[in-house]
Amino acid sequence: MDSGPMDLLLTMSCFPMSQKVKASSVVVSEQETDTSNTHGPNWTREELQDLIEIWLEQSIMASLENRRNKPVYVTIAKSMQARGHNRNWTQIQCKIKALRSAFYHAKDVNSGS
Question: Where's the Myb/SANT-like DNA-binding domain (predicted)?
């Protein structure tokens, strides 16, 4: 069984912050603390697979080329909820950004540059 792009994306997740970054983080005020944990629990393989399937739809791909993408992320969140997953648009935005970043990082590393 070959390892395709879908398998690569499914194995990627948000990378933990390094100790140096954690130590230098800015202290969050009490008001910000209430909203700072909006990314939720870790993503399951099924959630990632469904997210990628929705993300790969042509209408979603075309819509994400715009600068203002909140309505697209809301649409993806509704599709995820229809599939039985409880993720909001900010969690989806964060995961898509992390997957994109990890993909391009892996692509650069593997290109030999």
Answer: 41-112
Residue 10 lies in a domain: no
Instruction: Please tell me the distance from the alpha carbon of residue 77 to that of residue 51, in angstroms, as a whole number.
Output: 9
Query: Tell me, what CATH number does 108's domain have?
Result: 1.10.10
The SS3 of residue 50 is helix
What is the C-alpha end-to-end distance of the chain, expressed in Å? 28
Owning domain of residue 98: 45-113
Comparing C-alpha atoms, which of 24, 96, 11, 16 is closest to residue 61?
A: 96
In total, the chain counts a number of residues equal to 113
Q: Is 88 left (phi over 0), alpha (psi -120 to 50) or beta?
A: beta
Number of structural domains, the chain? 1
Q: Is residue 90 part of a domain?
A: yes
Tell me the per-residue pLDDT of 47-91, one tens digit each, with 9 for 90 and over.
Answer: 999 999 999 998 998 888 888 899 999 999 999 999 999 999 999
